[in-house]
Amino acid sequence: MSAPSTPRPTLPTSTAPSGPASRTTGRPSLRRGRCLDWRVRFAVLSVIWGFSFLLIKVGTEAYAPFQVALGRVLFGALALLGVLLVRREPLPRGLRTWGHLTVAALLLNSLPFSLFAYAELSIPSSLAGICNATSPLWGMVLSMVALSEDRPTRRRFAGLGLGFLGVLIVLGAWQGFSGVDPKGTALALLAALCYPIGWIYVRRTLAATPGSPVALTGAQLLVSTLQLALVSALFTSAPASFPLWPTLSVVALGALGTGMALQMQYGLVTEVGPTTAQMVTYFIPVIATAAGVLVLGEQLHWNTPVGAAVILAGAALTQTRLTRTRTGRTRTGRRSPA
Known about the structure:
Elements: E1 13-14, E2 18-19, H1 38-59, H2 65-87, H3 95-119, H4 125-132, H5 135-146, H6 154-171, H7 182-205, H8 213-235, H9 244-272, H10 274-277, H11 284-294, H12 303-318, E3 320-324, E4 330-334
Antiparallel strand pairs: 1-2, 3-4
């Protein structure tokens, strides 16, 4: 999961959640009439994506990491295909489109979902959620290299430095990183790096592709299901049993956290705009930490919430840039991650 940010056509949010977005050329054509106030849906979305890391942790108690990732994309794809069936919307067409979707599925689903599952074999779910919040920091570095229109500013450089300072605080750098599994943490940070790489690829190749975001994301999850089914068959053995709670966790992780949560975010983007909708990213590590401590009994030291707050502050700064108003004056405005 990704830390989900502003939804793009093929983004799975998060987590990193993935997780996971609106097109650069327009917004999804969804109805504006909603049964629940957008603030309620925003809160529900934050909780779903925040609990995703707990669900991964529970899932790995009975299943191999590749199998957890496979179940996640499988049930996410089924959820979105159900939406497409009700709407009578077709999947995208064209070999070129499906070729790009294959790469996007690898970068935005198969690889990060597997890395987070492997990471949580040795690190707390709360730490995985915090590592996921570094995605905007990686995104700033990559976008400056890959996107010529993305110009760095002092504010964004300050946010980058502040964010990585937060990472060092979370990891307890002054203690020699004692008590933190370096391999698991590195895998979680690498998973967070996958998302901006995937976003940049999508922006360059699929931004103008015809089709609704739900159709493109559903197709992407289908491709990811095939990828992970092949990898799971090659590198894991079939589960001997299907324990209740780990199984329900994987189903919920896919159907809710990877499927319906994306559909919910598309509605938020349409109703309140991408700037407000992407603010869900900043609640995910808070909820992931609370869930890990309260439900799984994970230990919480002072540096974890303090470092997480510093990371989120830095990430917020990296998502701002200077824009010009019609009167020619310069102001600071929010921007979506690449």
